[in-house]
Amino acid sequence: METVSKVTTKQGDRGAAKPAWYDEVKVFEKPILGKAIWQLINTLVPYGVVWFLAIRTVQSGYSYWVTLPLVVILACLMVRIFIFFHDCTHGSFFASRKANTIVGYVTGILTFTPFEEWRRTHGIHHSTAGDLDRRGVGDVWTMTLEEYRAASKWQQFVYRFYRNPFTLLFFGPVATFLIAQRFPKSSMPRKSHISIHITNVALAFILVVAHFTIGLRTYFLIKIVAMWIAGAMGIWLFYVQHQYEDVVWTRHEAWSPIHTALHGSSFYRLPRVLQWISGNIGFHHIHHVRARIPNYRLEEAYKAIPGLREVKPITLWASRRSLFLNLWDEQAGRLVSFREVKRLVA
Description:
Radius of gyration: 21 Å
Oligomer: single chain
Mean pLDDT: 93
Helix content: 55-70%
Low-confidence stretches: 1-13
Structural class: mainly alpha
Number of domains: 1
Order of helices and strands: HHHHHEHHHHHHEHHHEEEH
Strand content: under 5%
Number of strands: 5
C-alpha cells in the first residue's frame, strides 16, 4: 500500500508526481442517473411531506414546540438538498450539463443560493484552498499569527468577533444566506448577476404565493427558521473541512492541489444518519482530489482506493476543538487559538 507523505509548509511539491492511485479515482467521476434520481426522490418527497405537516401544526394552533422538531427535520433535508446543489455546480450530479443547471437552479432557490455565483466562488475555493497567498474567496476568513499581531486593535476585534463560534453559527446563516447572497456586486461577471436576480425573483414569487395561501407568518416560522438551522449546520460542515487540527496550509510556491486535498481537507467521519444528511461531504479529502465525483460515489471511492483511507479521520466529538483554532502560525505550521496567543504573549 502506498503511503502519502506529509510535508511541512516550507517544502514544495508542486512538481511532485501524483500518487499511483490518482488515475484510479477518475472512474468514480462518472455520474449514475439512477442514484441521482433516487437521491432526489428520497429527499424531496420527505421534504414536501414535512412541509405539509409543519404547516398543519402552525395553522391548527399547536405550540411551536410541536412544530420545531419538524422544522429541524426540514433543516436537515435542506442540508442534503444543498449537497445536490453543490454537486450540480461541479457538473457532477448528472452527466447532462443542462440537467445539472436546471436542478442546480431549483435546489439553489430552495436553499436561497444563486447557482452561477456560488459555482464561480466555489471554483475559486477549489483552486486556492490551503494557499496562504490566495485567501479570501469562497473560504473562511483566516489570518496568520503575524498578520493578527500587526493588525490594529479594531481589526483584531473585528476578526475575533468574526471567528467567535456564536457569530459564525448564529449570525453567519443570516448574513450569508438571507442577506449577502441577495445582492450582486459590480465586480461579479454577468452570469452571476443574472443568477442572483433569478434567485431573488423566484424567492419573491414564493413569498407572494405564501402570502395568499399559508400566510407569511406560517412561512417564516417554518422556512426561515429551517434556513437558519440548515445554514448553521452548513457553515459548520464547511468550517471543519479546512479548519481543524493537523490541517496544512502553505505559501503559494509550496502549494500543491493533491497535497492540499489530502492534508488540507478533512475526512469527517460522521454517524451514518449525519453522513446521509450531509450527503457524504465528510469525505472531503476525496472531493478535493477529484471534485467531479458525485456525492453518492464518494464512499465507494473511499472503500476502493487504499491511499484514500490513509487520511486520519476526524470524529464528531473531536471536531469541536476546531471552533477554537483561530490563527495560522506559520512558524509552528499549525492553527492556534486566541488563548494560546494570549498565553504566549504573557
